[in-house]
Amino acid sequence: MIKIKGKVTYEDLEGGFWGIIDENGSKWIPVPMPEQLKQEGANVQLTAIVLEDYQTVYMWGTPIVIKSFHTLPLLN
């Protein structure tokens, strides 16, 4: 399990998809992305499992399964 703190983004590539960019600039693709997190720019903190042998059609980020999450307040 890993912990990720980052921002939700919608990428308009290859049909479009939701992802998360963490504080270090790493990109993550939740499989599937919870509906509650589909908010462009939302700050999130989550616990996830990396899908080591999983391939997506998107050439962007590392696939993960989210086990728990919560949103964080927006920073000014």
Task: Write a concise synopsis of the structure shown.
With 76 residues, the protein is mainly β. The chain has no helices and 5 strands.
Task: Name its key features.
76 residues; OB fold (Dihydrolipoamide Acetyltransferase, E2P); mainly beta; 5-stranded mixed barrel; single chain; globular
What does this structure look like?
The structure is a single chain. The chain is mostly beta strands and 76 residues long. The protein has a single domain, classed as Beta Barrel (OB fold (Dihydrolipoamide Acetyltransferase, E2P)), CATH 2.40.50.500. Helices cover 0% and strands 51% of the residues. The protein is globular and about 30 Å long. The termini are far apart. The model has no long low-confidence stretch (mean pLDDT 92).
Task: Determine the strand fraction and express it as a percent band.
Answer: over 45%
- As for the number of domains, it is 1
Please state the overall shape, judged from the principal axes of the Cα atoms.
Answer: globular
Level-1 CATH class name:
Mainly Beta
Determine the mean pLDDT.
92
Termini separation (Å)?
30 Å
User: Would you identify the CATH H-level superfamily?
Assistant: NigD-like N-terminal OB domain
What profile does the largest beta sheet have?
5 strands, mixed, barrel
Strand order of the largest sheet: 1-2-3-5-4
- From the coordinates shown, what is the CATH architecture? Beta Barrel
